[in-house]
Specification:
402 residues, mainly beta, Deoxyuridine 5'-Triphosphate Nucleotidohydrolase, Chain A, Cathepsin D, subunit A, domain 1, four-stranded antiparallel β-sheet, 4 helices, 31% strand
């Protein structure tokens, strides 16, 4: 038995020596003993690799070359002879080399999709053909399939190879895609860097910027209210009216430094959220929201400055008047639906003709019958159905007042 050795001081491989004398037939393999057992350093494992000289000249390769760090028995080398001649192994021959390699062990997590990459599912030989400058991301999208909208017409052509189906970040039950959705918010300073802090909704979808009068009262010197164009806020509140707008500086404190935007904010009474940023100034200042792995970030044009946003699950930006209105509307709709259902039931009730006396009608004859009517008729004319011949004969009936 020989201790593994390195050919030079900078060699990464340690040569292994055989303790067996045997012959490996052509196109066959044999397990060769080394007489060694070893434990590698922490966070490493042992890889058994072929020696370059034997691989080139004799076509001798190593199979199954991973030795786990918790394996403590004798290390044996599985040598494979891929030549057309038998290969002789003698005791003391250098048969392979071991290399200590760093390794990371991590828990396995099942996911529905993988993050998109430029390479995607392209395998053998794809790196010689793919044009990475095109940045056409391919990804494993799980069960997602591309679909052609029926409104696109029969002449619509799609390049399937270039189509990207975006995976969902959070799956929800069918019909409940809205669950968990909420506007993104952050804190801003009102007026200047030393002004009071207030929460602002960034992506409400509002066309104009709105502010609560209560938020302005926190400022040492609230801005003057100007009379602006009347705006009907039917989507925000029902009873609240706009009383004007203010010129309001907003300061965003980013990790890279503060950023100031000057907005015209309309005052809305009863709005419990201090501020709602409208599309008007989001567009003018080129503010954009970047969403990645469930985290939303607000980017300020091309300044290189950004700040993380928070998700809000409350409906505090809706005034109490709005909430009461929504409940009232819901009740009204319920009453209307009930009236419609009652009307439909009445329409379905058919009049019933009941004989006053017990009568016998002989075969092939007719007889006058006194009857009473239960239910309502839509007109003075109708048909009387004889129950004994149900589905076979209807007698015309003329109704008149008694």
């Amino acid at each position: 038995m020989k201790v593994p050795t390195r050919a030079t001081s900078k060699s990464m491989g340690y040569d292994l020596y055989a303790t067996d004398t045997l012959q490996i037939p052509s196109n066959d393999n044999q397990l060769i003993s080394t007489g060694l057992a070893m434990t590698p350093p922490e966070d490493t494992y042992i890889r058994i690799a072929a020696r370059s000289g034997l691989a080139l000249k004799k076509k001798i390769q190593v199979d199954a070359g991973v030795i786990d760090p918790d394996y403590t028995r004798e290390i044996k080398v599985l040598l494979s002879n891929r030549s057309s001649e038998p290969f002789q192994v003698n005791t003391g021959d250098k048969i392979a080399q071991i290399i200590l390699e760093k390794a990371v062990s991590a828990p396995i997590k099942m996911v529905k999709y993988l993050e998109p990459t430029d390479r995607g599912d392209k395998g053998f030989g794809s790196s010689n053909k793919i044009d990475f400058s095109e940045s056409q991301a391919q990804t494993n999208t799980g069960n997602s399939n591309y679909k052609i909208n029926k409104n696109q017409g029969s002449n619509y052509k799609m390049d399937k190879d270039k189509l990207i189906v975006l995976p969902k970040m959070a799956e929800r039950p069918p019909g409940c895609s809205f669950i968990g959705t909420s506007p993104t918010t952050t804190l801003v300073k009102l007026g200047d860097l030393d002004g009071p802090s207030a929460k602002i909704i960034i992506d409400s979808g509002s066309d104009i910027t709105l502010v609560s009068p209560e938020a302005l009262l926190q400022m040492p010197n609230p801005p003057k209210t100007h009379q602006g164009k009347q705006v009907k806020l039917s989507q925000v509140t029902v009873k609240t009216m706009i009383s004007g707008y203010v010129d309001l500086p907003l300061i965003f404190n980013t990790d890279q430094g503060p950023v100031q935007t000057n907005v015209e904010a309309y005052l809305v009474k009863g709005m419990t959220t201090p501020l709602i940023l409208g599309n008007d100034f989001a567009d003018q200042y080129s503010l954009s929201i970047l969403r990645d792995n469930g985290q939303s970030t607000l980017q300020f044009a091309k300044t290189g400055r950004s700040m993380k946003l928070e998700n809000s699950t409350s409906d505090s930006h809706i005034s109490p008047e709005v909430k009461a209105f929504l409940v009232k509307v819901k009740k009204s709709k319920h009453k209307i639906k009930n009236k419609i259902r009652q009307h439909e039931r009445k329409k379905k009730i058919q009049p019933t003709f009941l004989s006053v006396n017990e009568e016998i009608i002989p075969p092939f004859s007719s007889q006058i019958i006194t009857y009473k009517i239960e239910g309502k008729l839509s007109s003075n004319e109708g048909y009387l159905e004889v129950l004994d011949f149900e589905g076979k004969r209807l007698n015309p009936l003329q109704l008149s007042d008694a």
